[in-house]
Specification:
Blueprint (H helix, E strand, L loop, with lengths): L1 H17 L4 E4 L2 H8 L7 E4 L4 E5 L17 E4 L7 H11 L4 E4 L6 H10 L4 E4 L3 H6 L4 H22 L8 H14 L4 E2 L4 E4 L20 E6 L1 E3 L2 E2 L2 E6 L6 H19 L7 H14 L11 E3 L6 E5 L12 E4 L2 E4 L3 E4 L2 E4 L9 E2 L11
Parallel strand pairs: 1-5, 3-4, 5-6
Antiparallel strand pairs: 1-2, 2-3, 7-10, 8-9, 9-12, 10-11, 13-14, 15-18, 16-17, 18-19
Amino acid sequence: MSEVYAARRTRLRERCNAGGSAAALVTRPANVRYLAGAAPRGAVLLLGKREDLLVCQSPPDDRPYEGRPDEALRVQVLPQPAGDPAVAAAGLAHAQGADSLAVEEHHLTVARHRALASVAPRLRLADLGTAVEQLRLVKDEEEISCLRIGAEIADQALGELLESILVGRTERHLALELERRLVDHGADGPAFPTSVATGPNSGRRGHRPTDRRVEEGDFLSVCLGAAYRGYRCEIGRTFVIGTSPADWQIQLYDLVFAAQRAGREALMPGAAYRDVDRAARQVLDSAGFSEGLQPLTGHGVGLEIDEDPQLAPAAMGKLDACVPVTVEPGVHLPGRGGVRIDDTLVVRPEADGGPELLTITTKELLAL
């Protein structure tokens, strides 16, 4: 992997040099991990004029789920644990002879930006922008492999839960059990707070579990994800509890399923982000559910659970191959509940079989 990290840093350095910056300071944790292999708490990465450095407050922990720093990268630990690695890195950049430093202004606070300027007043600060995030968009096969394993873990945890007795248990209890099962099966931990929603809560995006108990006839919607070696996937499913689904539940489920299928089928290299959103959204619009739809149909995943691209009505840009995204339309009817269906897929060309589905738990409307 050392060559992979070195190649990523080289691509970023080329962008910085083209923009007139001799050095770059990366502070956003996911970006540090992408370029350095690990992001110990508070660590920053300096792409220096003469040498690249991972600057840390304390020595990195040797824990696999936190990543391991690239062996070719020198780690510099601050003598004072309370010091700011970003400020120290700016001083190091100046000492290496850099006259300009590109920084992630979208991640720095105003106070921290001022501290950088004060430590080396002759060092011109420029904006690195989202250069690293753009490099992270297209995943290599090692990254996709981590996402694939994470998806397998999430599928396994969800499948085991569906085999247990659910009636009478609370949303909160079920969410905690799912997160325990993720870890039991090898995940670093949950990719995000697990959402379990029953009855009138079902179908809500980002619902926080409550003490409401599962009842016969409820819709039960579950959204969870596993983090594996730092990479995060997502899956969401909706079920009916205890009895055969009511007619309105079948109709609503079939509608959301059709919207999700339309979104998945629109995933191809060169497809506009907003066209993927439109493919799913127009199915729901045509059925009269234009009001209250969620603001996006899906988003990128990787070292963060909500990355670019955003599959939304006003999103600009087009998909590339090897970009992992979610497709997650949903409908919530106030007071009754609703349906969400959520998959993680990797964009692939038709010659390679089209989009690769990572989350494979059945999307059949099961009565549990």
